[in-house]
Write a structure and sequence with these properties.
Helix 6 links the parallel strand 7 and strand 8. This protein is 47% helix and 13% strand. The chain has one domain: Rossmann fold (3-Layer(aba) Sandwich), CATH 3.40.50.720. The strands form two sheets. It has a seven-stranded parallel beta sheet, with helices on both faces. A two-stranded parallel ribbon has the order 7-8. By secondary structure, the protein is of the alpha/beta class. The protein is globular. It has ten helices and nine strands. It binds NADP nicotinamide-adenine-dinucleotide phosphate. NADP nicotinamide-adenine-dinucleotide phosphate binds next to helix 1 and strand 7.
């Protein structure tokens, strides 16, 4: 059973990113109206102008780690006649061994990937509940279900996001708000540094295009009840094996530690693309 009513008004965070811009394009092509959040006003405006019906969409420039920025975003959303969908897509990653990460990095990853989506969902639920077809979709990661060496903070943030999504889906079950979780495996975007790409090649990890992830996101938004979806084979199998027989995965990944350690220790520039 699918909810097909269009157009919807959709708040999309991280709209300038690889997956975000692909989601923006596919939703705009289907006729949705987009509120595009990002930090770089020029790039956001270019994205808006490149979409079908650019005049219908709106850009919202805000840093989500900044509480004043988040307040502005909420105020802009409040000016809308309606809000139907929140896509919590903005995120950061950090590929490093735990001992090589300082408090600031741990906080930045957990704040961006977990606390911001929680706070946005909390603050926007009253507005979403006025919609006839409200939905929240949180973009997680396969690493939220398979603890992967070198991604302790990132994996923790996405595991937390999964737990949050599941609890919120149940909390909202009688309110009509559909709460979805979409967990991609590796995706070809700037989130992954050269070291991560090299690691993926060395470990023969497959990766997907942003467009294919966006398509799964669009499909999920058509579902009538909150769902969780994991992208990729054999990752979906690994997730099941990890849940039932974690020692098997412990052993497989511990054998890869020398390779993971080598790439995690490669010097690379710091920044949000980490
Ligand atoms: N790429 C992968 O391999 C992969 C795999 C699984 C899951 N994911 C998830 O998919 C989502 C999108 O990632 P992506 O691959 O598209 O990465 P990306 O290209 O680096 O895009 C990430 C977006 O998040 C935004 N962002 C980061 N920190 C922000 C902040 N403090 N305030 C506002 N916006 C912020 C960035 O904004 P700016 O444009 O302003 O920098 C950027 O647009 C993330 O949640 C990520 O964890 C990615």
């Amino acid at each position: 059973m699918r909810a097909q009513k269009l157009p919807r008004t959709v708040l999309l965070t991280g709209a300038n990113g690889g997956i975000g811009s692909a989601i923006a394009r596919q939703l705009a092509e289907r006729g949705d109206r987009l509120l595009l959040q990002g930090r770089d006003a020029d790039r956001l405006e270019q994205l808006r102008l490149s979409l079908p019906n650019p005049d219908r969409h709106r850009v919202l420039v805000a840093d989500l780690l900044d509480s004043a920025g988040r307040q502005r975003l909420l105020q802009w959303c409040g000016e809308e006649e309606r809000l139907d969908v929140l896509v919590n897509n903005a995120g950061v990653s950090r590929f490093a061994l735990l001992g090589d990460m300082g408090d600031e990095e741990l906080l930045r990853v957990l704040h961006t990937n977990l606390l911001v989506p929680m706070a946005l969902a909390r603050d926007l639920l009253p507005l979403l509940q006025r919609s006839a077809m409200p939905a929240v979709i949180n973009i997680g990661s396969a690493f939220g279900h398979i603890g992967h060496p070198g991604f302790t903070a990132y994996g923790a943030s996405k595991a937390g996001l999964f737990g949050f999504t599941e609890a919120l889906r149940r909390e909202c079950a009688d309110s009509g708000v559909r709460v979805h979780y979409l967990a991609p495996r590796a995706v070809d975007t700037e989130l992954n540094t050269p070291a991560v790409r090299a690691l993926n090649r060395a470990l023969r990890n497959k990766s997907d295009s942003p467009a294919s992830v966006a398509q799964r996101c669009v499909e999920l938004l058509g579902e009538r009840v909150g769902q969780r979806r994991f992208i990729g084979w054999p990752e979906r199998l690994f997730i099941k094996v990890n849940a039932l027989f974690p020692r098997v995965v412990d052993s497989a990944l511990s054998k890869k530690m020398p390779v993971i350690r080598r790439y995690a220790r490669q010097p690379e520039p710091t920044g949000d693309a980490l």
